[in-house]
Amino acid sequence: MIDGGKHSGSDNFTVAYSLISPQKKSYNMAKLDVFYTEKFLNMKEERKKFPPTNIENMIIDYGYKDSNIFLDNLDKIEILHKTEDIYFYLPSHILDIFSTITKFVNLDLMTGKEQKNSFIYSPRVYVDFNDKLYLGNDFVVNLKDMNILIGENKFELNSFITTKKVGNKVELIKKSFNDNSNIIVIYMENIDRYIVVDSKMLESTFVELFVFEKYDNKLFEPIIIKDHTKVYKLKQ
Asked: Structural domain tally of the chain?
């Protein structure tokens, strides 16, 4: 759906939205994005009358005038369109750019203004020294007091989650700290990687499918599940 030669704001928005949203919204957005892409590619002269972006076509066809209301209700829409098979390919190196991916949906489509969205940070390397995790870019986790320093700002942690692959299942070891905090640190033991997320990102399709291998079997089917690569097929 996107590649080195196809990465306009509208192209990136729908794909990023599918990765960052909860699973039902993710599934519906992916199905619609592929449907309208295929529809456009099969058109000839009538392309001139076709609205220029997939997200605009979705909103018009489903009878909405406000994109925010459409997105709010996306998980309630019944998708009847048939498409070619759709796969989510989730490699571990996507963590290197995932904070950038979030910026493509950090927009109000009605105004174009930036808005606060979900948060994720995952360094490729880290240093564990004196009960502190140095994650780079001024991120420091204090493992003794269970707080995190981001720049000059200190926040308490909601929880610390360790994931470990045992056989075909991901086992979780969760230590809870402050329910009023929305910052969670995850350690993926099998790939030796730390991830810092907020509570909204914790419920994203990407984190649930890649980190926890937790999927709605009415929507997704696992195809390839390895430490560094996860592939899921969307059910018809």
From this structure: 2
Q: Are strands 120-121 and 132-136 parallel, antiparallel or unpaired?
A: unpaired
pLDDT at residue 47, as a whole number: 66
Is 3 within the bounds of a domain? no
Q: Which residue has the tokens 């991830």?
A: 195
Sign of CA dihedral 30, 49, 71, 92: positive
Flag whether 108 is in a domain: no
The answer to whether residue 224 sits within a structural domain is: no
Segments in the chain below pLDDT 70: 45-48
Q: How far apart are CA 176 and CA 219, in angstroms?
A: 30
Residue 111 covered by a domain: no
Q: How many angstroms from the chain centroid is the CA of residue 150? A: 22
What's the pTM? 0.93
Q: How many whole angstroms separate alpha carbon 235 and alpha carbon 184? A: 31
